[in-house]
Each structure stands twice: as C-alpha cells, then as structure tokens.
Write a structure and sequence with these properties.
- The protein is mainly α.
- It has one domain (2-100).
- Helices cover 87% and strands 0% of the residues.
- The chain contains two helices and no strands.
- It is rod-shaped.
C-alpha cells in the first residue's frame, strides 16, 4: 500500500508537470500562430506591391527589391510552420506519455488489488480456529 501511495504521488507530480508543459506549448503555439498571421499579411502586401511594380515596370530596381523582400518573407514564414509541426509532435508525445502514465497507474492498482485479495485469501487459513459450544460433563 505504501508503494502505491508513493507511486500515486509521483504520478501526480508527473501529471502536473505534463499539464505545465502542455500549457507552455499551447502558449508558444498561440504566439507562433499570431506571428504567422502577421507574416502572411506582410507577404500579401509584398505580393500586391510586386504586382504593382510589374504593371508599372518603370523601375527594374524596384522590382528586384520587391522580389528580394518577398523571398525573405517567404523563407521567414517557413520557420513558424516548422515550429508548429514541432509543437504538434511534442503534444503527441505528451499525450502518449499521459497514456503510459495512466496504464502504469492502472497496472499498479490491479497489482495492489491482487495483493490485497491474496492476503484476504491467506488470512483465514493461518488464523487459529476457535470452537464454541457446550461441553457436557456427566458423572457415572
């Protein structure tokens, strides 16, 4: 029983740590999504600017600058996507860890129940038997 309590405390700490990690990952995910939205808006503006520059085509230099900016913005947008994928993978691993913890707890509980059941089965066999009744004594 003592081992079960220690295991339960450890599992509770692990669960709390897991919840804290999930909260941190969700916060980071939210920040990455916001950054991605801003980068998408920047890319859209740069694409519009590039289209305007193509239509005007009076300045080759302006067109090249816009193209460079678009290339930089596109490359920068890949980073949040990779980070989002990494966060998604981490959350999957945390889910698996929680499932393993739950299975371990269940197994420990089952083993604890089996141990208690075995003790209950063995206890009546090892206790002294007491007999109650009336003894009749007769004198002849």
């Amino acid at each position: 029983m003592r081992h079960f309590i220690i295991s339960e405390k450890r599992d509770k700490k692990t669960h709390q740590h897991t919840l804290q990690c999930v909260a941190e990952l969700e916060s980071e995910l939210k920040q990455m999504k916001n950054k991605n939205v801003k980068l998408s808006e920047t890319i859209r503006k740069l694409e519009e600017s590039l289209e305007q520059a193509k239509k005007q085509s009076d300045s080759e230099t302006q067109l090249q600058e816009n193209f460079k900016l678009l290339s930089i913005a596109t490359a920068t947008q890949r980073e949040p996507r990779e980070t989002l994928q990494s966060l998604s993978d981490s959350m999957k691993r945390l889910t698996v860890a929680e499932q393993v913890t739950a299975s371990t707890q269940q197994r420990a509980l089952q083993e604890s129940d089996k141990s208690e059941q075995l003790q209950l089965e063995l206890t009546p066999q090892h206790q002294p038997t007491t007999r109650t009744g009336t003894v009749l004594a007769t004198s002849s």
